[in-house]
Amino acid sequence: MAFNKEYSAYLKSTKWRKIREVVLTRDNHTCQLCNWSHEESGNRQLTVHHKSYEFIMHEEDNDFKDLITICSICHQFGPHCKANIQRFKKSKNNPEK
Questions:
Q1: Closest to 72 in 3D by CA, of 91, 49, 90
Q2: Could you tell me which of 70, 49, 47, 74 has the C-alpha nearest to residue 59?
């Protein structure tokens, strides 16, 4: 329970807001799973998601490689754990599979 409070506070911090903006910019404000962009219409938001929690609160230790931009639809319903992201990206690159 203490971790959840600490993590919730972290997500409201200036540090996280700066990290979030770096990742959104790196990913061109586009969902890395479905390619939805903030410029398109639709009732979605972009989320910066941790692929794992290995670097949580220390994301800069691996150059933000453990973070990915995904839209709220993909975050809620789509494949967003590390293994599924990799599998999904492979299938996007090889659509005949």
A1: 49
A2: 49
